[in-house]
Amino acid sequence: MDQSTLPDHHNQGEDLEKLEIHLLLEGIYLNYGYDYRDYAYPSIRRRVWHRIHAEKLTTISSLLDKVLHDSSYFERLIADFSINVTEMFRDPLFFKAFKENVVPLLKTYPSIRIWHAGCSTGEEVYSMAILLHEVGLYEKTKIYATDINTDVLKTAKNGCFSLEHMKKYTNNYIQAGGEQAFSDYYKVTDAGVKFHSYLTENVVFAQHNLVTDSSFNEFHVILCRNVLIYFNKDLQNKVHQLFYNSLGKFGVLCLGNKESINYTAFNESYEDISSSQKIYKKIK
Ligand SMILES: C[S@@+](CC[C@H](N)C(=O)[O-])C[C@H]1O[C@@H](n2cnc3c(N)ncnc32)[C@H](O)[C@@H]1O
After folding, report:
1. By the 8 A CB rule, do 121 and 85 touch?
2. Which pLDDT belongs to residue 98?
3. 258-266 long-range CB contacts below 8 Å, 24 or more apart?
4. Radius of gyration over alpha carbons of the chain, in Å?
5. What is the pLDDT of residue 119?
6. What's the 119 CA to ligand 1 centre distance in angstroms?
7. Is 60 within 8 Å of 20 (Cβ atoms)?
8. Is residue 203 within a helix (H) or strand (E), and if so which, with residue range?
9. Which helix (H) or strand (E) holds 264?
10. Given this model, what pLDDT does residue 191 score?
11. How far is the CA of 46 from the centre of ligand 1 (A)?
12. Distance from the CA of 152 to the center of ligand 1, in angstroms?
């Protein structure tokens, strides 16, 4: 027999693992309608093994079996898939650049629509509301804040955050060019800090899945920071198509600091407003 036709045992293990993960994601999609098939493989793989160990299982196929027959396994697995790390005024220089370069453009509009796609527990949304409040634009703005995960949206709506983060968030706020005392925006309660409700008066929180749901409005600004990093190239392009369709003329797209419009299918459709802070303007 020709040795070159024999499977390589090392690769066979990897190939089998890939096949089992493929079957798991396919099973989730067919049974529950959640599509993780084009999420970045290394991160999905890490999370699948984390769940297998947490459930005291040993194989991916045994996890698939549990996930298909008991939806509580499915809930716990997709909670692992969703990375919700966020903070207020995350990457403060982004907010500074937004204030300097995007706010003047927004001032020329009679009303403003902003979409935070993948808003997690809402810290980014509260930060934007504070910024817009300080430049006198909040009144005429409607913010749509969406995420795939309904648990994080509950926290976002509540506006209660842990007191221990406030020192860091205050520093971020100052670096972002904040003009008041950060503590003016919240009150300390037994449960932590509660941000004032006027900050969410013009915010709609809603579930939206970037992979399977379509465009629902036309926006002046879309922020999708630290979400696309978890998707593979095909899925990134698909979501960029959704953003392109959802932005009006000269609409502004904001990505996370490890993300970029370069090397996507939409590179030519935008120009840089701030290349270092990943802020782009739709030009065609
Ligand atoms: C790391 S957080 C980013 C939060 C915030 N934008 C920031 O930069 O701090 C990523 C969020 O994307 C959400 N997400 C993941 N896949 C999604 C999808 N298909 N549709 C909508 N949101 C998704 C996760 O649930 C999570 O809350």
Report:
1. no
2. 98
3. 258/226, 258/229, 259/225, 259/226, 259/228, 259/229, 264/233, 264/236, 264/237, 264/240, 265/237, 265/240, 265/241, 266/237, 266/240, 266/241
4. 21
5. 98
6. 6
7. yes
8. strand 203-207
9. none
10. 87
11. 18
12. 10
Residues ≥6 apart with Cβ < 8 Å to 63: 24, 48, 51, 52, 55, 57, 73, 77
Q: Structure tokens of 76?
A: 């716990």
- Which regions in the chain score pLDDT beneath 70? 1-11
Residue 123 and residue 155 in contact, taking contact as beta carbons nearer than 8 Å: no
Distance between CA atoms of residues 75 and 78, nearest Å:
5
Q: What is the pTM for the complete model shown?
A: 0.90
Ligand 1, pocket residues at CB < 6 Å: 82-86, 90, 118-120, 124, 147-149, 152, 209-211, 225-227, 256
Q: What's the CA gap between 165 and 171, in Å, rounded?
A: 10
Look up residue 225 and give its two tokens: 């920071």
**How far is the C-alpha of 125 from the C-alpha of 244, rounded, in Å?**
21
CB count in 10 Å sphere of residue 64? 22
Cα 66 from Cα 118, distance rounded (Å): 28
Q: Which residue type occupies 237? A: N
- Residue 18: burial class (beta carbons within 10 Å; 0-12, 13-18, 19+): middle
Q: Which amino acid is at 155?
A: T
Expressed in angstroms and rounded, the spacing between residue 148 Cα and the centre of ligand 1 is: 7
Query: In degrees, to the nearest 5, what angle opens at C-alpha 217 toward C-alphas 153 and 80?
Result: 30
SS3 2: coil
Nearest CA to ligand 1 atom 2: 84
Which pLDDT score, from 0 to 100, does residue 4 have? 42
pLDDT of res. 76: 96
